[in-house]
């Protein structure tokens, strides 16, 4: 009873099996399907559908976050960090204008 991968007795590596025509045909069909799907996605209708789904997903994520205390806490931390970063940028820009001048 054989189990596992066949080993080449000379190289002691797994034997390489040739790809059969059926497997090759199946792979080609899969690639053609992917290409057709890509055409659909890149069309105007496909792009509109993607935008619609993105909007629905964003709304769902926001609803879930609002129901989850831990997620709300994480979001508040990120907002606080963003405000601090924004304030720091404004302070640096103000100092730059005050001491160096605005060359633009």
In short:
The chain has two domains: 21-67, no CATH class; 69-99. It has helices at 21-42, 44-67, 69-99.
Which descriptors apply to this entry?
0% strand, mainly alpha, 104 residues, 74% helix, 2 domains
List SSEs in N-to-C order. HHH
Using DSSP, what is the number of strands?
A: 0
Q: What is the approximate shape?
A: elongated
Report how far apart the termini are.
Answer: 80 Å
Helical content band: over 70%
Question: What is the mean predicted local confidence, pLDDT?
Answer: 84
Structure annotation, total helices: 3
Strand-residue proportion = under 5%
Structural class: mainly alpha
Q: From the alpha carbons, calculate the radius of gyration and give it in angstroms.
A: 29 Å
Low-confidence stretches: none
The largest sheet is:
none
Number of domains: 2
